[in-house]
Amino acid sequence: MAETGSMGRRGTLAAAALLASGTARAQPWRPSRPVRLVLPFAPGGITDILARAIAEPLGASLGQTVVVENRQGGGGNIAGEAVSRAPADGTTLLVASQGMTTMNSALYRSLPYDPDHDFIPLAVLAKQPNFVVGNPTLTAGATLGDVLARAKAAPGTLTFGSPGVGSYAHISGELIRFMAGVELTHVPYRGSSLMLTDLMTGQLWLGLDAVATSMPHVRNGGLRALAVTSPQRNRAFPDVPTVAESLPDYDADAWYAVYAHKDTPEPIMAVLDGAIRAAIARPAYAQLIQDRAADPMPDSRAELLVRLHQEQRKWQDVVRRSGARAE
Asked: What is the pTM of this model?
């Protein structure tokens, strides 16, 4: 009986240890140090606003501080290199538009990381099109189709501005040029502010810029919105047609996502994915993006990866055809 009792106690202890081990394995991952959201842009832009809006709720879900780190410059390459070289432990994430991860390998002769393969998208924070905006006097009464017809009749005489060579707005404009079969002279700027000023003073005919930064000027009459680059009209500007209404199948909807290092273990990515999606599901966040004429994009991780690869092929082809180079 003593032997049986001893075996019974040992069996009970073994079962308890096994149960404890299973419970430990079932515990979700938690970061052991602060989580960094690394951005390739300066503070104040739409990417920065979105990242800061999720930082606090994301930190609450993960039980750890989440900090936003702006590493602007180099067309996103400074931020991209920082994330690609960081440990793949879920504590260093990239927040960027898909332009950086779809175009940079075609725009730059050499890169310190591989934008096509080094990052895995977890969740999209929002999507937002660009406006095709025009000088109100130069484009008075004209549709985008009318302006493109004028460009075709007088090749190279009409200008379009963008926030910079290789920016998503620039390459979106090149796609318009290719699909319309017209010659437009690209004028790059260092950011949106000077470009919008030159548009309003008549130095440019057209410009492409994020809806969030252009819409105050559209609303006060300083600029005319000729079109939006998304496949559907923007709900905040239902009277503004899409580019696709003049050029069927045109689609240049920008989206802003959180990316993890490709070698991050799946259990960590699953926790991050759930926490990010919970942060953007809050009513306050929905109001934030609505106020900026942006929309949610609830694609799953698998759907995002497929979309990313499709857009890499599409935009890298446009970059190569345009001959655009960034250094």
From this structure: 0.85
Q: Which CATH architecture has domain 35-128+254-322?
A: 3-Layer(aba) Sandwich (3.40)
State the Cα–Cα distance between residues 48 and 117, nearest whole angstrom: 24
What kind of architecture, by CATH, is found in domain 129-245?
Answer: 3-Layer(aba) Sandwich (3.40)
Position 229 confidence tier, pLDDT thresholds 50, 70, 90: very high
CA distance 30 to 314: 37
pLDDT at 99 over 50: yes
pLDDT at 26 (0 to 100):
58
CA distance readout (Å), 45 to 76, 97, 140, 192, 210: 14, 12, 30, 10, 10
Sketch the domain layout of the chain as residue ranges. Answer: 35-128+254-322, 129-245
Residue 112: the pLDDT is: 92
